[in-house]
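Need the bound structure for magnesium ion, inputs here:
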Amino acid sequence: MAIIIKSKHELEILREAGRINAQALEKASQAVRPGVTTEELDRIAEDYIRSHDAEPAFLGYPNGTFPGHPYPATINASVNDELVHGLPSDRRLQGGDIISIDCGTIWKGYVGDSAVTLPVGDVSAEAERLMNVTQKALELAIDACRPGNRFGDVSATIQEWVESQGYNVVREYTGHGVGQNMHEDPQIPNWGTRGRGAALRPGMTFALEPMVTVGPPILYVQDDYWTVATRDGELCAHFEHSIAVTDGEPQILTLP
Ligand code: MG
Ligand code: MG
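Answer from helper R.:
Posting the output first, comments after.
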């Protein structure tokens, strides 16, 4: 496992990539309302990224499980029981839905990767609580990204918080190093053991992405080859930031 330490110059570019990505995500998020289609959200994000001379990172991304089905869009739009990799379509969002929008941007050869889960109109108290717990898991994980901690500490932070709230963490999909490639070493699971794994060092950059289910974290891939959903049809949520480890406070790279 080779974890790449980024130079100051590389961190600067990663911050720019992250900013464009976060702004594209913000634009798409602002358009979320009952009646909008997930394709329309996709177009908003793609137009924003291209108008800044950057490129969508997900478009054309190879499918590891189903070769021959590269990702055809700019965002992942995953609704309700869909966790990640939801394909944008002519599906219209309805009041009471929750939607995870995940977006990636390539800028000067470096990748920004972040995601949010949003309510569509008024949602149930359970949906609200699920989103809050998942977002808080991301905040706690970011705060754990300090020199002296190990990756196991970051993973355990997410798992302990989520399970203390009565929810479950997903096993099959993880956070990851991010840089010139969207997925670099190491994988950062949303579950783990404190004190295990490599030590965090300044200049490491990675995407943290808690994925939380209300029911058992048992997933399947829908017959579009991409959309990952919960087997029991219960709600799930997903938040993500790309961050950099520094000598002191962790730095979020994907801020608008
Ligand atoms: Mg992502
Ligand atoms: Mg990611």
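Comments: The pocket of magnesium ion (ligand 1) is lined by residues 102, 104, 113, 115, 240 (CB under 6 Å). The chain has a mean pLDDT of 97.
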